[in-house]
Backbone:
């Protein structure tokens, strides 16, 4: 039971999507399956992440799982078919990869509130979040090579950037489980707190983040991503540079001159060394 008055933004079958004090909270709500995701879960999460992107009220996003046992146990093995996870429409998908990209390119901080098992594709979900705060009962690990899958994308390369190549290979090659303290020691999470204090701690981090400049945080996030993401990362960084340019009078002079059918005068604006 939360001590914060979360308001429902929209009702979904597989997730809870709530708001409080500038925070958008997305909770995977399938505790019966240790919060494993099926295609519909991921579609709903993508819609919620997009909502957070466009909302002026939401400054920071929290991702978590319902209950006290699991953050997320990865792809729902009951609906795994040939070609991916099969939704109610009969179409096999691996749309969690789209969700991973959405989380990374969301221009607002995303915090994983890891309240139990973060396993398989559920582990990768916390890895792609900007920050991870775990409860003392949290357990981390990849299972792919044991259950017939793998994530050689962010789940491998970004994981290795976080914990180092040797540790990332250990995580994938042995499919062991790690407790919260071990995760903290390998830099996989930012903090570990008792389960009953987890949400309070996460809200406190959200409050601190919201004291800071949203544009500065946005630029830092995109810069940290760009270093890893190659051409796609440069494109995102460049898009943000364009946004900043649009905010200048110099850029507005170009647009105004076009609309007023006159020559632009860019020389009147300051030049910086
Ligand atoms: C999480 C674990 C360790 C929890 O153990 P615990 O507490 O002992 O609970 P259980 O009794 O095992 O579970 C309770 C009930 O929940 C069901 N359940 C748990 N996890 C899943 C799941 N992932 N899918 C479906 N059902 C699940 C149990 O079956 C049980 O039900 P009942 O009561 O009926 O017996 C433990 O549960 C565990 O190890 N779970 C499985 C973890 C796992 O292997 N996950 C899948 C890993 N793979 C992926 O996530 C794929 C990722 C992906 O989508 C992907 C991404 C990028 C590229 C490729 C892929 C790809 O799919 O290939």
Residues:
């Amino acid at each position: 039971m939360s001590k914060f008055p979360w308001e429902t933004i929209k009702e979904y079958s597989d997730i809870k999507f709530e708001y409080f004090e500038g925070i958008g909270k997305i909770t995977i709500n399938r505790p019966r399956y240790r919060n494993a995701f099926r295609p519909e879960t991921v579609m709903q999460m993508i819609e919620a992440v997009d909502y957070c992107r466009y909302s002026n009220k939401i400054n920071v996003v929290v991702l978590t799982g319902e209950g006290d046992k699991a953050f997320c146990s990865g792809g729902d093995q009951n609906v795994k078919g040939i070609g991916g996870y099969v939704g109610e429409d009969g179409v096999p998908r691996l749309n969690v990869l789209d969700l991973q990209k959405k989380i990374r390119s969301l221009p607002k901080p995303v915090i994983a509130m890891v309240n139990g098992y973060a396993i398989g594709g559920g582990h990768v979900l916390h890895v792609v979040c900007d920050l991870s705060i775990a409860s003392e009962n949290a357990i981390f690990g990849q299972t792919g090579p044991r259950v017939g899958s793998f994530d050689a994308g962010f789940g491998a390369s970004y994981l290795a950037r976080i914990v180092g190549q040797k540790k990332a290979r250990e995580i994938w090659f042995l499919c062991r489980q790690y407790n919260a303290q071990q995760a903290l020691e390998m830099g996989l999470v930012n903090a570990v707190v008792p389960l009953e204090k987890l949400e309070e701690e996460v809200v406190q981090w959200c409050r601190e983040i919201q004291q800071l400049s949203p544009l500065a945080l946005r630029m830092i996030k995109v810069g940290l991503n760009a270093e890893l993401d190659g051409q796609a990362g440069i494109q995102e960084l460049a898009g943000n540079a364009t946004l900043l340019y649009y905010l200048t009078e110099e850029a507005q002079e170009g647009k105004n001159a076009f609309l007023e059918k006159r020559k632009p005068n860019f020389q009147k604006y300051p030049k910086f060394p």
Q: What stands out?
A: The domain at 7-211 is CATH 3.90.226.10 (2-enoyl-CoA Hydratase; Chain A, domain 1). The longest strand covers residues 15-20. The chain is about 45% helix and 20% strand. The chain has a mean pLDDT of 97.
